[in-house]
Amino acid sequence: MKNCRTLNGLLKAIQNGERCCLTYTSKALSGSGGYIIYQTNGTNLIVSNETYEKIEPYLKQVWFTSCNYWNKKGVYILELKSGDKIKFGKKYCVETGQEDLLNKIIMLTPQYFEEDNGLYTYQSECPGICLDENEPDSIFHLFGNDLEYFYDCEHIPATEDDLLVIKKLKEDEDRAFQEETERMVEFFEKQNT
């Protein structure tokens, strides 16, 4: 399928009988009649009702996911956070070779990763999952830095109960870290006496 980038390209492909589409993130009625189509490349198309009716079957909506705001280009961006769940879709599973995840629903939990800013290293938290018990995957490992590989996965927002589970998980992790720190202090105090 040809993925057209412009309205003229789409109209020409339709006229030539090509199998084609134009991706967009959202659309709205324009104040002057017709539609505004917010494209994935950040540009907006303003088309008449007549043109819209002609191209509507060839429009393919896609979603970008990363932060929760409307950016200046009119693209809605969805926030993924710990407690949310992901239902893995067929395209994602086939494209990534993880067919065993098909239709599974997995909760995102806090995962910790070491980062380096050039001066020092530090640990940062990112929502993710742990498919392999030794190696956690952040949402960026799973879906790409711009979450461009989210494909047909379904985002299921966290419920209050999900958020309570995450809160308890974090409290347990904090308690375990505190206990480990206290044991280390005790060990070093014994070494120095």
Name the descriptors.
193 residues, alpha+beta, five-stranded mixed beta sheet, three-stranded mixed beta sheet, 5 helices
Task: Give structural notes.
By secondary structure, the protein is an alpha+beta fold. The protein folds into two domains: 2-62, no CATH class; 79-191, no CATH class. The chain has helices spanning 7-15, 49-55, 90-96, 139-143, 160-191; strands at 2-4, 20-29, 35-39, 44-47, 59-61, 64-66, 69-70, 76-79, 85-87, 105-107, 109-116, 121-132, 135-138, 154-156. The strands form four sheets. Strands 1, 2, 3, 4 and 5 form a five-stranded mixed beta sheet that branches. Strand 3 (35-39) and strand 4 (44-47) form a beta hairpin. The termini are far apart. The relative contact order is 0.11.
Give the SSE map:
Layout: E1 2-4, H1 7-15, E2 20-29, E3 35-39, E4 44-47, H2 49-55, E5 59-61, E6 64-66, E7 69-70, E8 76-79, E9 85-87, H3 90-96, E10 105-107, E11 109-116, E12 121-132, E13 135-138, H4 139-143, E14 154-156, H5 160-191
Parallel strand pairs: 1-2, 2-5, 6-8
Antiparallel strand pairs: 2-3, 3-4, 7-8, 9-10, 9-14, 11-12, 12-13
Summarize it.
The chain is of the alpha+beta class. 31% of the residues lie in helices and 35% in strands.
pLDDT average, as an integer? 82
- Mass-distribution shape: elongated
Structural class of the secondary structure composition? alpha+beta
SS strand fraction? 25-35%
